[in-house]
Amino acid sequence: MTPWVKRLLAANVGIFLLQRAYPELTSYLWLVPARVLTTPWTPVTYMFIHGGFWHILFNMLVLFFFGPRVEERIGSTRFITLYFIAGLTGALCSAFMPYVPILGASGAVFGVELAYARFWPTDKVYVYGILPIQVRWLVPITILMSIAGLGGFDPGVAHCAPLGGLLADAVELYSLPPPARPPGKTTPAAPPARRAPPPPPAAQQP
To answer: How would you classify residue 152: left for phi > 0, otherwise alpha for psi between -120 and 50, otherwise beta?
Structure first.
């Protein structure tokens, strides 16, 4: 498992356990856009709290399965930058519903999912272990699941955060040139062509 994926998984699970032990912590860390000036830490902390077991399970599964390969592909620095750009843009887009509490890593992990689809669109994922689907189709399906309140998303909660995360990462991924492959994984150059030796001189007749 790659460094930042491991740290993010540990942070999300650890804070979720603290939420179970101290329920009042949730309202201290969630984001209410209308109150952001008095709670300036919440555009970051909302990404690390979740509304229930299925909510965190869905998000962490997406991060676990898609995150390591994306981090290896684009590098750790760009990976964590992409993750937080998606999450912070999700917080910004949530301003359209200023009094709805926002919580969860959905915006950030949707950005990771989009990055995977950007580089490996035809890879297949087995939904529920039995239904094969290409990753490029998984992104719109998870958007619909979010809007419908399925897969760990709560109906009635603002869905601008995951959609904003997708939008931000789409701009970042498709507007910048693809990153160079990590050292040691480049395709070796073909050896120079060797010239054929000249034919031997023809034998002379006596």
So the answer is: left
**Residue 205 DSSP label:** P
| Model confidence pLDDT, tens digit, residues 111-144 | 898 899 989 999 998 877 788 889 989 888 877 7
CA atoms within 13 Å, Cβ hemisphere of 170: 11
Tokens 């229930």 map to which residue?
A: 52
Mean pLDDT of the chain: 80
| Amino acid type, 98 | P
The Cα–Cα gap between 69 and 143 comes to: 22
* Residue 139 three-state SS: helix
196: left (phi over 0), alpha (psi -120 to 50) or beta: beta
Q: What are the backbone angles phi and psi of residue 125, rounded to the nearest 5°?
A: -120, 140
Give tens-digit pLDDT for 171-198. 666 665 555 555 555 445 445 555 555 5
